[in-house]
C-alpha cells in the first residue's frame, strides 16, 4: 500500500458537556494527526489546551465545507492524517461534515470513526421510551407553521420520535408537539452530562407548565423524545394508520368501496366497517 493510502480522515466524537467522556482513543488520535478540522477553532482550541496538545487547526463549517474538501484531500494525498471534530458530540449528527465525508469517500480515501458522545443516543439510553425503533429528526423548523406541518406529517408514526431543540424555542416546540401529536408520553433530556442534567417526563403541555413554574427548566440544551402513535394489531381496524390510508386513497381519487377494500386487505378488519369509515371521511370532506 502506498503511503498516501495510509492517511486517514478520522471523524472524532468529542464530549457534549463532561470532558471525561472523551475516549483515550480520541485523545491519541487528536495527538497523532497533522491537522484538526474543527467547526469552531476557538472552541476546539480550548479542548486541545485541556488535553495539552498543540495541533494545527483549520475551520470547517457549513459555509466553507465544500471549499475545504480540496485542502483536506491534499493533506491525505500527502500522507497526512486529519481529524474532523465538531463543537460537541459526533460530527455530522446535526453538525457539519457530511459534504466532506461523502466527497472523500467517493474519492476512495480512508475514513475512520472514533465513536463517543452523541446527545440523542445518550438521551434515549436513559429515557425509558421504546428504542427498538426510533427516528431522529434533528431540529424542527424555526417557524411555527412549518414546524406544525412537519409534526402533523409524523403524527401516525409508531416509532419513538427524537428531536434536538434550543432553549429559545423549547416552549413553542413543546406546545406545537402537544397540538399536533396530542397526549403522548414525552421525555425531555436537558443538559446531559452537565451539572444541571435533568430528565422531565410527562405530556408536552405538562412540561410547558413545568417550565412556566420553574423557568430554569427551559434553560440549556435539549433532546426531545416523543412516544410513537399506539401500534395497532392487524385486524383491530388500526385507527391512525387506517385513517391515514383511507384519506390518502380518497385523495388519490379512489371510490369509497375501493378504498375500503384496500384498507381491509392491508390492515385487516371487516370491509363493511372500513366502508363506513371511508364514507364518513368522504362526507367530512
Ligand atoms: N453533534 C451533536 C451530537 O452528537 O449530539 C449535536 C450537535 S447539534 C448542533 C446541538 C444540539 O444537540 C443541541 O441544540 C441539543 O439539542 C443537542 N445537545 C447537544 N449537547 C447536549 C446536551 N449536553 N444535552 C442535551 N442536548 C444536547
Folded structure, characterized:
Helices cover 44% and strands 17% of the residues. The chain contains twelve helices and ten strands. The protein has helices at 3-6, 24-32, 41-51, 65-77, 98-106, 119-127, 144-154, 170-181, 204-213, 239-251, 256-267, 271-283, and strands at residues 8-12, 35-38, 57-59, 82-85, 110-114, 134-139, 160-165, 186-190, 198-202, 222-226. The strands form two sheets. It has a five-stranded parallel beta sheet, sandwiched between helices. The protein has a five-stranded mixed beta sheet with strand order 6-7-10-8-9, sandwiched between helices. The radius of gyration is 24 Å and the shape is elongated. The N and C termini lie far apart (67 Å). The model has no long low-confidence stretch (mean pLDDT 92). S-adenosylmethionine is lined by residues 16-17, 86, 88-90, 93-95, 118-120, 164-166, 189, 191-194, 221-223.
Low-confidence stretches: none
Order of helices and strands: HEHEHEHEHEHEHEHEEHEHHH
Mean pLDDT: 92
**C-alpha termini separation:** 67 Å
> Portion of residues in helices?
40-55%
Instruction: Label the structural class.
Output: alpha/beta
Bound molecules: S-adenosylmethionine
The count of DSSP E runs of length 2 or more, i.e. the number of strands, is 10
| Name given to the CATH architecture of the largest domain | 3-Layer(aba) Sandwich
Biggest β-sheet: count, sense, barrel? 5 strands, parallel
Report the CATH topology name of the largest domain. Cobalt-precorrin-4 Transmethylase, domain 1
Amino acid at each position: 500500500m502506498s503511503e498516501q493510502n495510509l492517511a486517514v480522515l478520522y471523524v472524532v466524537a468529542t464530549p457534549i458537556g463532561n470532558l471525561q467522556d472523551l475516549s483515550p482513543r480520541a485523545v491519541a488520535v487528536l495527538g497523532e494527526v497533522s491537522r484538526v478540522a474543527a467547526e469552531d477553532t476557538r472552541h476546539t482550541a480550548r479542548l486541545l489546551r485541556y488535553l495539552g496538545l498543540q495541533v494545527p487547526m483549520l475551520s470547517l463549517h457549513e459555509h466553507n465545507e465544500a471549499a475545504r474538501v480540496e485542502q483536506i484531500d491534499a493533506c491525505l494525498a500527502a500522507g497526512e492524517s486529519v481529524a474532523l471534530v465538531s463543537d460537541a458530540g459526533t460530527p455530522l449528527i446535526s453538525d457539519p461534515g457530511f459534504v466532506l465525508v461523502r466527497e472523500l469517500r467517493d474519492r476512495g480515501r480512508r475514513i475512520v470513526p472514533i465513536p463517543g458522545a452523541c446527545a440523542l443516543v445518550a438521551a434515549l439510553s436513559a429515557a425509558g421510551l421504546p428504542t427498538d425503533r426510533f427516528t431522529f429528526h434533528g431540529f424542527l423548523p424555526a417557524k411555527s407553521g412549518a414546524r406544525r406541518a412537519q409534526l402533523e406529517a409524523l403524527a401516525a408514526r409508531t416509532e419513538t420520535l427524537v428531536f434536538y431543540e434550543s432553549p429559545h424555542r423549547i416552549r413553542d416546540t413543546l406546545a406545537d408537539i402537544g397540538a399536533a401529536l396530542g397526549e403522548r408520553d414525552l421525555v425531555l433530556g436537558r443538559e446531559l452530562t452537565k451539572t444541571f442534567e435533568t430528565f422531565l417526563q410527562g405530556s408536552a403541555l405538562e412540561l410547558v407548565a413545568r417550565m412556566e413554574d420553574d423557568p430554569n427548566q427551559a434553560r440549556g440544551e435539549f433532546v426531545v423524545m416523543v412516544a410513537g402513535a399506539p401500534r395497532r394489531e392487524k385486524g383491530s381496524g388500526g385507527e391512525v394508520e387506517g385513517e391515514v390510508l383511507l384519506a390518502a386513497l380518497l385523495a388519490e381519487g379512489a371510490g369509497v368501496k375501493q378504498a375500503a377494500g384496500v384498507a381491509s386487505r392491508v390492515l385487516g378488519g371487516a370491509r363493511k366497517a372500513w366502508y363506513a369509515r371511508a364514507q364518513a371521511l368522504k362526507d367530512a370532506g
